[in-house]
């Protein structure tokens, strides 16, 4: 109750300070207003700190009450053997408790106060520090414990992002996101998706899972990149307006996360592999024939029905003949790989198209 009252009071004070700041800006050319600017800035900073502290207190999980002596005596084992037998070797990390309705209301009042004061960065930092950072740390710890050694863990980004999305859509973070992302919300000035969530996620992934950004293993890099793009698409699905989506894509955290993916090195590695395979096949001065392949059917045509009823006819479509030269077979393999969905990334589509044309031109020369 006391925390809720304090947050309500801070919201009212922040609204009045916002009005006073508007009036001070209107009279900024007056000498006495300029003389008050240091005091205004000092009191504004003090109010911002109080709002941030109240928001952190409202978002923090309540401390568990100490057990009573009677319950402690009842729950304590009778002997050492019983305690050893009842101990769990791998305890699961505790889940963060959902805030009560009173604490959630206090947090929303504090967020309103920060929005009225124009201090969205401080509020986003408090949400990131109190809610998002422990959530991301818990998810990464669970997947590290389940993933074994670092090599296999560094290439499995999809399950981590799936767990993060489930945690985001659960209390205590989900109610705050819903309030901020609602159309016409007075909290629309806060950007919790980018300023609190995405900023923490991209830093935690870089520190805890640096291998997912490495293009040294192209298949793993391809899978991790597509998993992240799908996850970002799900975050965009939480937005209610186009402006929110554009703000998310234009945020510094979004840009920093995408810059961690060195797609140029990824393409260079695949370019060397694909073009090198064709170059090796064309390096010989003589034409090499493919060894005879067992054919499944002796017919060189495939029947295709057309029409219907009694007038149904059969058209014979010639079946493409397999390549006779080893160089032609190598070209087909390289072309299939250069356009394969398991290789091409959306931002590199133009480069892979250029590679296809270069392969065809090299074969023709």
TrEMBL record:
GO cellular component terms listed in the entry, alphabetical order: Golgi transport complex; membrane
Chain positions covered by the region annotation Disordered: 59-101, 287-317
Domain of life: Eukaryota
Pfam families: COG2_C
GO biological process: Golgi organization; intra-Golgi vesicle-mediated transport; protein transport
Biased composition (Pro residues): 90-99
Protein name as catalogued: COG complex component COG2 C-terminal domain-containing protein
Organism listed in the record: Astrephomene gubernaculifera
């Amino acid at each position: 109750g006391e925390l809720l009252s304090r947050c309500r009071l801070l919201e009212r004070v922040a609204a009045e300070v916002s009005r006073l700041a508007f009036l001070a800006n209107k009279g900024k050319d007056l000498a006495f207003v300029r003389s008050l600017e240091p005091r205004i800035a000092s009191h504004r900073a003090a109010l911002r700190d109080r709002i941030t502290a109240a928001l952190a207190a409202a978002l923090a999980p309540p401390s568990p009450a100490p057990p009573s002596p009677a319950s402690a005596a009842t729950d304590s084992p009778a002997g050492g053997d019983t305690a050893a037998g009842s101990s769990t070797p791998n305890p699961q990390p505790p889940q963060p408790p959902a805030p009560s309705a009173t604490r959630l209301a206090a947090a929303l009042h504090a967020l309103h106060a920060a929005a009225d004061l124009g201090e969205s960065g401080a509020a986003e930092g408090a949400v990131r520090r109190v809610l998002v950072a422990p959530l991301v740390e818990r998810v990464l710890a669970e997947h590290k414990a389940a993933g074994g050694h670092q090599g296999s863990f560094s290439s499995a980004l999809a399950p981590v992002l799936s767990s993060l999305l489930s945690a985001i859509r659960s209390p205590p973070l989900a109610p705050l996101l819903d309030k901020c992302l609602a159309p016409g919300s007075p909290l629309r000035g806060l950007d919790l998706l980018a300023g609190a969530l995405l900023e923490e996620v991209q830093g935690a992934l870089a520190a805890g899972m640096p291998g997912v950004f490495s293009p040294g293993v192209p298949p793993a890099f391809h899978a991790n990149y597509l998993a992240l793009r799908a996850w970002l698409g799900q975050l965009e699905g939480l937005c209610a307006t186009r402006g929110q989506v554009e703000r998310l894509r234009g945020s510094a955290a979004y840009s920093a996360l995408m810059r961690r993916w060195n797609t140029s090195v990824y393409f260079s590695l695949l370019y060397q592999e694909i073009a090198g395979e064709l170059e090796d096949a064309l390096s010989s001065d003589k034409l090499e024939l493919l060894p005879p392949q067992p054919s499944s059917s002796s017919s060189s045509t495939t029947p295709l029905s057309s029409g219907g009823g009694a007038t149904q006819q059969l058209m014979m479509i010639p079946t493409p003949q397999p390549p006779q030269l080893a160089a032609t077979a190598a070209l087909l393999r390289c072309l299939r790989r250069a356009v394969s969905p398991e290789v091409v990334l959306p931002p590199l589509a133009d480069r892979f198209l250029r590679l296809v044309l270069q392969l065809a031109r090299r074969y023709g020369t």
